[in-house]
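Supplementary Data S3. Sequence and structure tokens for construct A.
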Amino acid sequence: MVLVGPVLLIGVPFAARGAGAVHRALLRGLLGERIQPPPPRPRPQPRGKLLVRARAALTDPDGWRSAAFTLAYLPVGVLLVMLFATVRLYGLIALTYPIWWRLVPADDGHRGLGLGFGGVQLDTWPTALLTCLAGFLPMAISTWCTRWLLDLAVRPMARALLGPGKLDARVHVLEDTRALAVQDSAAALRRIERDLHDGAQSRMIAVAMTLARAREQLARLPGTEPELASGRELVDTALAESKTVIGELRELISGIHPPALNDGLDVALETLAARAGIPATAETELPLRPPEAIESIAYFCAAELLANATRHSGATAVRIVARIDVDAAHAGAVLTLTVRDDGHGGAHPRRRGTTRGGGGTGLAGLAERVSTVDGRLLIASPDGGPTTITVELPFRTKDLTPHRAP
């Protein structure tokens, strides 16, 4: 009880998950009932691995639900086997009766079987053929009863216990809804960026060019009247303001969607590394392009982390690594962005609104940005360095797209 019991108890959910997978395969292959598997168990942390595994097993609701299905299916399975085997055995005997009825020995001069009531003997060819036709009845009854039991008990029980729970299904729906919302917001920002670039910015440039021509014409006019000088000053002021507005528009447009991302995240990261204030390298393993929103978050995270390393870490070199890990079994993928510098370390996020203490609100802002897609910001920055910050951005595999041809 003390030594073996806990081990067996911990092993129940693991074994039940395997049994559930077998039942789902049988239901899919034999009955055409497709049940989505429950979500995978979270991976245990490196520290306390054994205790974490034991706790995860004991608190695994999907494993215990699979165990409940296995126990609940036992009496139903026995009933199905008895019904199927017994009734069909009688039907098979009746169907084959014309073949072997003459082989049955008889004590009273008759061969074949008797019904056991009314003295009816099945000892002639007509009665043998009628018995054969009657054999179809138990075969049909067993088939109908088996399907009735499957539809009444097995299918609903399997849907309730072998598939994702209601909470998991709701979470899956919310995840899909959130992913669509993020994609829609990214598309809306791209439309705003194009409207600003092609609309407001173009018109402001046209206004600036008109003011420049007006200034040139005013400069050609002879005389030094006060009104003429005042007009020239007003035109110069308007031209300067228009140039300022154009610059702000360009910064706003680049903040909405960096132009470097038009060619992909790999090109954008290489451009960031080339323009950094300290020596920086970018290594990418991106055979396919992630969703636009994921690319944008990764780019802004890389830009912020590179700027922090340049301004605050005292580093002499920075390395940026980006790769995509695909989990084909669960139709998911993760974009992992790692920024490592050889600075003095000590980086940690500070809550927004605080003014005392170390760290910076930039990391807190990145954590908030990453959390919008259920991502993680992992910081390893001991005093004395080095600093390694990892950004993990999950997304669906179906959202991967090929790179555009140059």
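Construct B, processed identically:
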Amino acid sequence: MSQKRIYILNGHPAANSLSRTLAESYARAAEAAGYDLRIHHLSDLHFDMDFERAGYKDIKPLEPDLEEVLAHIDWAEHVVLFTPMWWGSLPAKLKGLIDRAFLPGRAFDTRHPNRFGMPRPMLTGRSGRVVITSDTPTWFLWLAYRNPVAATLKGHILGFVGIKPVKLTQLAGASEATPGKVVRWRKKVEALGARGA
């Protein structure tokens, strides 16, 4: 019996980052457990971040790297996204990837809406995991802001295109994380990778 196919996207735009460290720790543990995996680092992907269109009638062609991201999502049974939270949201390049690649006819279907009149998701049959690093304590994100980045990723983006359920791991105090804390976080994501979770 084949192992679960896992696609990992490190959504930090820098070549070296805590997100990259955690994504690679997850990947090593998943690979050691026998899972079939593919990984992208956002810093290695080349594409125009700007959608630059007023609607979906005139869409500029996707660059090869964006086509590859979509191909890996199509291939995967489980999608794992690592991202920092910046200004309560996603890094601009990661948001640009989503704006450009999650298109009608590729990620959702506007021609055949569901019974509520909403676009039909086209990436169903896949589960997800989002690992968010932030400086803001997680309890404060929930109390003061109702954790908008988590709601956006789980509901408005991944859930909208059919990737569900999406489980969430939040790691706070990222900018000033001590080496010991980073080790604990790596062990945490390694445990997730070993379970393909």
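The beta strands are 5-10, 36-41, 78-84, 108-109, 120-121, 126-134, 163-172. The mean pLDDT is 94.
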